[in-house]
């Protein structure tokens, strides 16, 4: 197993951090790794906002649904899809297409994953914060985001104060399809549900009794963030 694969396979979301700062050199390496991610058609339609203000961090923690580690992590980065830069270069740029929204989301997610993997390779830990989309308008106003910039997720990075258990993922034989899409094997799902039950019962904090199937049933039984379509269009995304 290579060191890169070992880093990837050891991933876990870290939400408790020490007070140790990240050196400027390490932060620069993390950010440069983010920039090295693949980009569709070389459009490079992502921006990263490093939030250092303690006041802004506290507000973002609340906007994200009361997640205190947004404020306490050594670094907090907000990853945005950004076509405003292109509009400044080319004022007549044709923007607002749904495909551009997809490109922006994909490219920005690749940058975020690169950043977290780089951080983990340096002995740091982190967690992605999709909760900033709970209040996207307030986040945009706080960060002074213009039209054609979309805040997608945040990333907390710091030195882990504890190492949480690794949450089991779906097994490969459920996720991988050969040549064509294949029917779901419910026996495999049942085995995975049992694995998740055992994981939640045994983990050191926030134990609970719920299967993965029960979790997704609860999550997908209602609309999440129903305001998002209106916000996207207000920011100049997915208008057509």
From TrEMBL:
<feature type="domain" description="Nitroreductase">
    <location>
        <begin position="8"/>
        <end position="159"/>
    </location>
</feature>
<keyword id="KW-0288">FMN</keyword>
<comment type="similarity">
    <text>Belongs to the flavin oxidoreductase frp family.</text>
</comment>
<keyword id="KW-0560">Oxidoreductase</keyword>
<dbReference type="Pfam" id="PF00881">
    <property type="entry name" value="Nitroreductase"/>
</dbReference>
<dbReference type="InterPro" id="IPR016446">
    <property type="entry name" value="Flavin_OxRdtase_Frp"/>
</dbReference>
<dbReference type="InterPro" id="IPR000415">
    <property type="entry name" value="Nitroreductase-like"/>
</dbReference>
<keyword id="KW-0521">NADP</keyword>
<dbReference type="InterPro" id="IPR029479">
    <property type="entry name" value="Nitroreductase"/>
</dbReference>
<protein>
    <submittedName>
        <fullName>NADPH-flavin oxidoreductase, putative</fullName>
    </submittedName>
</protein>
<keyword id="KW-0285">Flavoprotein</keyword>
<dbReference type="GO" id="GO:0016491">
    <property type="term" value="F:oxidoreductase activity"/>
</dbReference>
């Amino acid at each position: 197993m290579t060191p890169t694969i070992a880093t990837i396979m050891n991933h876990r979301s870290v939400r408790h951090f020490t007070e140790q700062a990240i050196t400027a050199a390490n932060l620069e390496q993390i950010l440069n790794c983010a920039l090295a991610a693949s980009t569709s058609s070389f459009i490079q339609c992502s921006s990263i906002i490093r939030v250092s203000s303690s006041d802004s961090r506290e507000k973002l923690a609340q906007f994200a649904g009361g997640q205190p580690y947004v404020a306490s992590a050594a670094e907090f980065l907000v990853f945005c899809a950004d076509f405003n830069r292109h509009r400044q270069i080319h004022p007549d740029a044709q923007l607002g297409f749904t495909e551009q929204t997809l490109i922006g989301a994909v490219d920005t997610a690749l940058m975020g994953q690169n950043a977290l993997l780089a951080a983990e390779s340096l002995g740091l830990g982190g967690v992605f914060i999709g909760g900033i989309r709970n209040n996207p308008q307030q986040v945009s106003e706080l960060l002074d985001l213009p039209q054609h910039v979309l805040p997608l997720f945040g990333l907390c990075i710091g030195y882990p104060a504890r190492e949480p258990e690794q949450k089991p993922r779906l097994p490969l034989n459920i996720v991988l399809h050969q040549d064509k899409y294949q029917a779901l094997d419910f026996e495999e799902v049942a085995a995975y549900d049992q694995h998740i039950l055992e994981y939640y019962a045994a983990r050191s904090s926030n134990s609970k009794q719920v299967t993965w199937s029960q979790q997704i049933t609860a999550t997908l039984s209602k609309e999440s963030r129903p305001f998002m379509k209106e916000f996207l269009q207000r920011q100049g995304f997915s208008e057509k």
